[in-house]
């Protein structure tokens, strides 16, 4: 592309890809980049007519043509947009409208519902993403057009996305990972198949074959399903690579991903990201997956990883020394918005504290050790729950730990009569915990959020409801 278009975001240069196919639909109809730009501009015109300028909109972001057009239209005409799960409850939606003074809610169909609210938004904020998988979180991440554009560019710098590729919406578009798949493919002039077929449905897998899907993207829960479906046995000649993000793989899934890459002879990109950094922060080069699959790898192009002492905030330079993982890069958010007043803040972040504990290896790769917030203090004994999950994985995998400072909760899915006593014995004897301080129980499935991450709050609720005896 010419230097004259270098300063345009991918949303503003759609038409430059002309008749190349941007969107594919399950009925085999297609939308070219030129058509998509025209549809977005037509919708922009409607937004400009009915919605007050510099106000905040919300979009129920389904994997449909009308929703994608509304998203791109907002970016092209400079309307700040909060992305919502398409099935977010009415009460949660109303609470967000009130808290952030959202001027209009755009339905997945494209219908615009004015609320009567109006709140000015800082001019550099174009997108708000929820920090939780529920998308009903009161705290949203504010992102600029530069955040979105530079992260899409960085992703295209390390992923082998080609203009001839077709990806599929295997992840929710209101979730930063799913959104980054859409953005990066539009950045590169590639195609996206918009499907709402669930990952476990026959329709989804038929579509991956019919549309020659070239890449699959998933969170740890997705890879559980891939294993269950035996993805490695499915003939998918068009598949060129896979990616994984959205949380750390447990040991059995790590083994599976390594085997999958080896069996398919396809690269798997393990990635690390946070909504606060638009999407991606780090990735592991696929050639290292057999030896370093427990690492998040290195910073994305244009970014920088560093470690700080969690207490003193001093920079840690020694290898194998745990500290809080921090990140610098042009994709770091503007800040958080929990209420309408936050939308007019003028703050600028230069460094993101991820809240993750990590260490750096001598070869420059980073490895996550756990979450700073995932600590319990039971009768003076400090427990790091991510470490505990790793320790309990010798008995069963997957296993999930949650809790408060007076109760540790451990849940697992394996149906083994002896397992409960083995875990209880470990907690009593190895950790010296009194039985009154923990609950151990078996579930058919561990609770997960819509983004595929473990739902620790739901697990706590299950434990405290009293339906699971110790």
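Sequence proposed for the structure above (470 residues):
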């Amino acid at each position: 592309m010419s230097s004259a278009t270098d300063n345009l975001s991918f949303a503003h240069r759609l038409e430059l890809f002309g008749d190349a196919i941007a969107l594919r639909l399950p009925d085999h109809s297609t939308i070219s980049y030129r058509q998509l730009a025209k549809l977005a501009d037509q919708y922009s015109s409607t937004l400009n007519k009915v919605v007050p300028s510099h106000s905040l909109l919300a979009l129920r972001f389904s994997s449909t043509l009308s929703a994608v057009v509304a998203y791109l239209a907002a970016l092209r005409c400079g309307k700040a947009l909060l992305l919502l799960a398409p099935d977010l409850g009415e009460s949660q939606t109303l609470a967000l409208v009130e808290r952030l003074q959202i001027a209009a809610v755009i339905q997945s169909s494209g219908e615009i519902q004015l609320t009567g609210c109006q709140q000015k938004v800082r001019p550099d904020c174009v997108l708000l993403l929820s920090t939780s998988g529920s998308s009903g979180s009161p705290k949203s991440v504010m992102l600029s057009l530069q955040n979105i554009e530079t992260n899409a560019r960085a992703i295209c710098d390390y992923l082998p996305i080609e203009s001839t590729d077709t990806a599929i919406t295997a992840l929710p578009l209101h979730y930063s990972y799913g959104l980054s798949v859409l953005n990066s493919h539009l950045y590169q002039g590639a195609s996206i198949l918009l499907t709402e077929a669930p990952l476990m449905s026959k329709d989804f897998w038929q579509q991956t074959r019919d549309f020659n899907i070239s890449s699959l993207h998933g969170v740890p829960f997705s890879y559980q399903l891939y294993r269950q479906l035996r993805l490695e046995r499915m003939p998918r000649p068009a598949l060129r690579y896979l990616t994984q993000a959205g949380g750390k793989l447990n040991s059995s899934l790590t083994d599976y991903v390594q085997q999958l890459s080896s069996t398919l002879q396809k690269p798997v990109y393990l990635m690390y990201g946070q909504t606060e950094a638009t999407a991606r922060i780090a990735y592991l080069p696929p050639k290292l997956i057999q030896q370093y699959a427990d690492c998040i790898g290195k910073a994305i192009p244009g970014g920088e990883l560093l470690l700080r002492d969690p207490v003193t905030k001093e920079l840690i330079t020694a290898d194998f020394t745990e500290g809080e993982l921090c990140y610098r890069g042009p994709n770091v958010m503007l800040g958080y918005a929990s209420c309408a007043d936050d939308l007019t803040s003028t703050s600028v972040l230069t460094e993101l504290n991820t809240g993750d504990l990590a260490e750096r290896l001598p070869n420059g790769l980073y490895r996550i050790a756990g979450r700073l917030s995932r600590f319990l203090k039971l009768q003076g004994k400090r427990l790091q729950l991510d470490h505990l999950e790793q320790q309990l994985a010798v008995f069963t995998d997957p296993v999930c730990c949650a809790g408060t400072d007076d109760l540790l909760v451990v849940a697992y899915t394996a149906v083994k009569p002896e397992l409960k006593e083995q875990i209880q014995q470990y907690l009593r004897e190895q950790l010296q915990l009194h039985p009154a301080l923990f609950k151990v129980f078996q579930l058919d499935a561990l609770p997960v959020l819509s983004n595929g991450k473990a739902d620790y709050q739901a697990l706590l609720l299950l434990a405290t409801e009293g339906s699971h005896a110790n």
